[in-house]
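Reviewer 2 asked us to include a model.

Predict the structure of this chain.
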Amino acid sequence: HQKTHIQASTLKQTIPNHQTPSQLSKKSNTPMKITTILGARPQFVKASVVSNAFKNSSIEETIIHTGQHFDAQMSDVFFKDLNLPQPNHHLNIHSLNHGAMTGRMMEQIETLLQQNKSDWVCVYGDTNSTLAGALVASKLNIPIMHIEAGLRSYNREMPEEINRVVTDHLAKLLLAPTQIAVECLKKEGIHQGVYCVGDVMMD
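Predicted model (structure tokens):
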């Protein structure tokens, strides 16, 4: 296991053009703005680490909770116990088939991203929330940061495999948990913007 150090120094190495998060946004005389899209229990755990690093690096983060995992024991308790900032927006989209869920998420995420004017969109893992966020961001020409990039089961019958593959091919910054994940990306022709940063879930 490679210990993860998601600090300003790490972000300086991974943000393209070596723009540190504490520097000003390219769009205006304001701090960098990142919209994080969450929806499932494992994503809340990972975000508790990364959102804290964003805060320490003077990044302005907006959190969108799609509602994919929605009850108190699968959602609210993680925000409380892990000191994760409360979502700025809660979409309450859940208990639907894959197509309906992803489509409704995309519709609402698009509206919020158009309002927020973020510099980056951050997504985690391989859920419908991940795919919805990545598709909308790519169509709005907002660069995507994919945490846990490069993981593969090579089973295309799994919806999660489709989600992670599509997201990786749309992302500009791919933060892989292991060197094996980096090699998986290389096999698919993804070489630029790939960094092996360790596993925030393990940490």
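The mean pLDDT is 86. The beta strands are 33-38, 60-65, 89-90, 120-124, 144-147, 173-176, 194-196. We have added this to the supplementary material.
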